[in-house]
Predict the 3D structure of the following.
Amino acid sequence: LYQVESRPLDKAKPPLSFVKPLLLVKSTLAFIIGSLACALGAILQAFIRGFPLSLATLRELGAHTSGALSRNSPLHLDSVEDTERETLRKLTAFLLEAEKGVVAVIGEKQTFFLPALTSLLQRHQQKSCVIDCNFGKIIMMEEKPGLYQLLKGTSTLDILQIHPSYSFIPAGASSSEGVELLQSTAFKKLIEEISSKYDFTFLVSRTSIDALESKSLLDKCTHAILVAEVPLDSVKDYLGSSRQKEKIRVTFIQI
């Protein structure tokens, strides 16, 4: 028989000491750092593009301002709060300084305050027609036919929707050729026809002031109601008396 030589085993290494992972603390720190990075990025972008203008700043720059409206402004004048009613009265006075006109209402964040505004105009024996010029939105069934069909020649003004204080032409369709439609001869003729029957024709666009759709409307209007939501560079052409030379009267509101 063979004798097997036995050797002692190597000494076992002691286990590593236990360290708490502190996941909650690390996650909180990561959230704070990420939030600060986003805030710094937004501030940097604002420095590059410019900060949105307040009504006070616009007034200091010589612009006409009419006040503020809430995002959920009531459709009926009787339900409007006193501060908003004052804004609507200032808008009414601004418009009534001229006997009649074509009014561009432009702003990405605007609320549909025109039912209340046209109610005030109606008290001054002024007839209003509102034209929805937003071809970039989803169109509901009740919005067909509308402006799109009028400009394409497949409908007539019999499609006018009659409301208590204003007549209404909905957009009619979603279309990628919105700029071309608003620059068309058909649109110009339609505005002339509507203006001959109404004291005020409102052209509503939920686009930025810099958008081609907005510029197409501003070229055809006598008044403009602009939502103060853009940097100074975007509205410098509408400040002070510079637009008076072009016979376009501009007022700003905040929403």
